[in-house]
Amino acid sequence: MSFPDSQQAAMRADEGVTRVLAHYLVASRAGDLPEKVRIHGICSFVNWLGCAVGGSGHPAVDMAYSALAPFAGAEQASLLGRNTRTDIMTAALLNGIASHVFDYDDTHLKTVIHPAGPVASAIMALSEFRGISGAEFIHALILGIETECRIGNAVYPDHYDIGWHITGTAGVFGAAAAAGKLLGLDEQQMVWALGLAASQPVGLREMFGTMTKSFHPGRAAQNGLTAALLAAKGYTSSEQGIEAKRGWANVTSTHRNLAEITEGLGERHESLLNTFKPFACGIVIHPVIDGCLQLRDEHSLQAADIDGIELRVHPLVLELTGKRTPKTGLDGKFSVYHSAAVALIQGRAGEAQYSNAAVQDEQIMALRDRVSAVIDPALAADAAHIVIRLHNGRRLEIFVEHAIGSAARPMTERDLNNKFNDLVVPIVGQDQAAALLRACWDIESCRNMAELSAMTQGERR
Amino acid sequence: MSFPDSQQAAMRADEGVTRVLAHYLVASRAGDLPEKVRIHGICSFVNWLGCAVGGSGHPAVDMAYSALAPFAGAEQASLLGRNTRTDIMTAALLNGIASHVFDYDDTHLKTVIHPAGPVASAIMALSEFRGISGAEFIHALILGIETECRIGNAVYPDHYDIGWHITGTAGVFGAAAAAGKLLGLDEQQMVWALGLAASQPVGLREMFGTMTKSFHPGRAAQNGLTAALLAAKGYTSSEQGIEAKRGWANVTSTHRNLAEITEGLGERHESLLNTFKPFACGIVIHPVIDGCLQLRDEHSLQAADIDGIELRVHPLVLELTGKRTPKTGLDGKFSVYHSAAVALIQGRAGEAQYSNAAVQDEQIMALRDRVSAVIDPALAADAAHIVIRLHNGRRLEIFVEHAIGSAARPMTERDLNNKFNDLVVPIVGQDQAAALLRACWDIESCRNMAELSAMTQGERR
What tens digit of pLDDT does each residue of B140-172 get? Predict the structure, then answer.
């Protein structure tokens, strides 16, 4: 790539972005964070832990565990939702896979990063191993989320359009920052940790629809953890891993605005913009599901009444979730057609609605084939327009301006608790799930994260 | 990125590159390889092992080991040159760092990939653990080198110009292919392993001059090994990890020629183009060092006689190794000025010539300041023109058309043995080094690579 003069000047202005960020991370004290930022961090944790426990029995986790267990180390950290402990590196990978495998975790809507996966997977394992307090954990989690979302802002959408799965590529910085904070890195070590992170981006969008998508946040967690551990020992890296001419931002994106990383650090909190998914599929389909559920409830719709469903959606919906004839449950998450049909028939869009059985159900398949979709570039990403034509000639219509779970219509604490229980009760039972949920909300009084981790253990080896 | 029609058509023609490569890797039998290819593979192994043993005591290896040992698994594989065994993942990383830390390993000149590091580091550990024979090992090593060099050819130079350290980004495919071969993957599993590799590129050129550069081949080895192990258990990935619109080649390079990957597979052997470094620094400086040594020998030059040294070099020389005032031994490897000066004074350019002491030596610094260099885009990468002006008015001149160690002037077996001994004798002593070297050349009769690995152990923990 060549750099015109105007860009050269901009690059000079970007000097020191890595160090400014490192300085902020090292200097930050938990007491500096406003209460609403801390509470939102706890919401991110509750949502992430529910997803990780809920996904812990997925075949992807089983396969990865059986592949890697022969090489794992001592029992240092829990595999969430399972009756197993392993070394912190292996735990970070497997918990990261589990937390994303249902595509049900959190989303920073400006960048479509799923922030908690890479960060929490890394520091949950580290905190259990080192007996870190819940307050320190939440502080590091928030700093990690802030780091990856700001770095994501600096390169979105170009970086994502090229084909990077931004959760894995930006996530490694979040994991390195949070793990580095808990390891007590000094500023120079934090600069190196960010440099080591810059050299380990994970994830191509080409992998969407395969198990490798979930591998990305898990591997990003491991990479960030590795970066922080190496830096703590003095392993050197670039001073300008993010902003250098051949640093991460220039190499992985065609455009960048590095001021996004440093402007208002400690004042404007990007972590507040993390949102939680009410439905177990790609966020871009959520306005459609929300609208279908609203029409279903309002009109007591039955599949047999429906002649056709016409969707008008944001362009990304068909780009990311345009599978017309999904074959598996995982495929179904990338099908707006299946999602609309199953929501109308079953009145939900949780994990059960994306099972192989649901995707292969004849009634759902029949309705799916009556869904049509057109893109409308004028629509916001959290909006959708839906028309349902009935056999009796009626025409039902809804415009969803902001889907449930969006920044404008966030899930309530009750919504989060219901989602948590849906995911966790099947794994650890009602009583343990209730105790775990209480402990999560009360995490800032937890003196040792090993105690909270112990409460996540299930039956499965 | 958007794709014009002509490129769309080219992309359609590229369909199936990943599968064609996987098919070749799975179907290949050791007996299919011509003898000269097998012998060249053994040369690559001898050169790599010498570098890895020689580098085993470097602070970067010590730091990485102390950072990661607490999380390592059972004693499955040797840390080369040390008195330690660890799990195969940790061994792959540390041996990969050790093998590259002197910048003294091999080079595929068409792409500046250092091929053996990612591949051999992965499969040396795996082979020791699983008791693989030497013949199988060499076969897999050659396939891995073939894979990464062909993938490198497909995207070089654009991929490298953008800022990727191609050894780490292409190397992960080589490691996955070789490990996958030894694990006996079927074609579908090999496709997935290559897809998992595609999602884990390692290495920015921004890290050159820091310890993170050596981390790249080590991490690439781990990533490829992980990819193969996961795929062996059925962990799914893209069917077109290399060639898809959002696959590795399109995401990490502005231009690509995917036919390089598949054309003549099994007939044209890219692995034959692997070369070995006679000098312990970046390959681009080698023509200069070669010429300086030739002039020194021919004219019995003394530093005190020299008024000035004028270099005319390939543009990459100043781009990669243009440090005027290196401060450390590692810096010195990125300084054509230091390299010319130390070669003229000490008559060598081995690891000792890139110590901190050598770089800070007053006589060498004084001569270094009398070296000037200009670029000449007409020069080949393995050529250089040197003029030395003496105080007595004489003007010595040499044009190096092909540096020693280039494809046109390869190192002999004797050169390789001398280099091996220089590196290995200080670590394991004369007798063990001699026995190890014999075993390396005779690797195809080794029934169990654990026996050869045991011979690499040194004193250092």
Answer: 999 999 999 999 999 999 999 999 999 999 999
Cβ–Cβ < 8 Å for A143, B230 = no
Residue of chain A whose Cα is closest to the Cα of B207: A238
Helices of type H across A300-377: 315-321, 329-332, 336-346, 356-359, 362-368
CB contact (8 A) between residue A238 and residue B165:
no
Distance between CA B403 and CA B406 in Å, rounded? 6
Contacting residues of B for A207, CB less than 8 Å apart: 195, 199, 237-238, 241
* Contact between chains at B162 and A251 (C-beta distance less than 8 A): yes
pLDDT tens digits, one per residue of A225-279: 999 999 999 999 999 999 999 999 999 999 999 999 999 999 999 999 999 999 9
Task: Tell me how far apart the alpha carbons of residues B285 and B368 are, in angstroms, rounded to a whole number.
Answer: 14
Kindly list the domain boundaries of chain B, sorted by start residue: 5-278+440-454, 283-400
Tell me the shortest Cα–Cα distance from B195 to chain A, in angstroms.
8
CA distance from start to end of chain A: 50
**Confidence (pLDDT) at A14:** 59
CA A201 to chain centre: 16
Give the minimum alpha-carbon distance from B11 to chain A in angstroms, rounded to a whole number: 15
Of B192, B236, B247, the CB nearest to A206: B247
Level-2 CATH architecture, domain A5-276: Orthogonal Bundle (1.10)
Q: Is the pLDDT of residue A117 over 90?
A: yes
**CA separation for the pair B363, B386 (Å, rounded):** 20
| CATH architecture of the domain with residue range B5-278+440-454 | Orthogonal Bundle (1.10)
**Does residue A364 surpass a pLDDT of 90?**
yes
CB atoms within 10 A of CB B30: 15
Mean pLDDT of B109-115: 94
Tokens (6 digits) for A194: 């960010």
The whole-number average pLDDT for the span A56-75 is 98
- If you measure CA to CA, which chain B residue comes closest to A203? B199
Q: Where is pLDDT greater, at B7 or A265?
A: A265
The residue behind tokens 């076969």 is: B139
CATH (one of 2.40.50.180, 1.10.357.10, 3.30.450.80, 3.30.1330.120) for A283-400: 3.30.1330.120
**pLDDT cut 70: percent of chain A above it:** 97
Say which DSSP state A410 is in: P
Residue A299 pLDDT > 50, yes or no? yes
Give the span between the Cα atoms of B277 and B396, in whole angstroms: 26
Which residues in chain A are closer than 8 Å to B192, comparing Cβ atoms?
A: 212
CA quadruple B337, B342, B348, B350: dihedral, nearest 10 = -70
For residue A200, give the chain B residue with the closest CA: B202
- Interface A:B, Cβ pairs < 8 A: 185
Closest residue, chain B, to A228 (C-alpha): B67
The C-alpha angle B64, A196, A183, rounded to 5 degrees, equals: 65
Does the structure show a pLDDT above 90 at B288?
yes
Q: Which of B204, B236, B238 sits opposite A246 (nearest CB)?
A: B204
Collect all residues of chain A within an 8 Å Cβ-Cβ radius of residue B215: 196, 199, 230, 235
Higher pLDDT, A51 or B1: A51
Residue B190 to residue B180: CA distance in whole angstroms: 6
CB spacing of A73 vs B72 below 8 angstroms: yes
With H, G, I as helix, E, B as strand and everything else as coil, classify residue A335: strand
Amino acid making up residue A437: L
* β-bridge mates for residue B400, sequence order: B384
* Mutation for testing the B interface, residue in A88, A212, A214 having most B CBs under 10 Å: A212
Q: Do B199 and A210 touch (CB under 8 A)?
A: no
- B207 and A195 in contact by Cβ < 8 A? yes
- Global ipTM: 0.89
Please name the helix (run of DSSP H) or strand (run of DSSP E) that holds residue B398, with its range, or none: strand B395-400
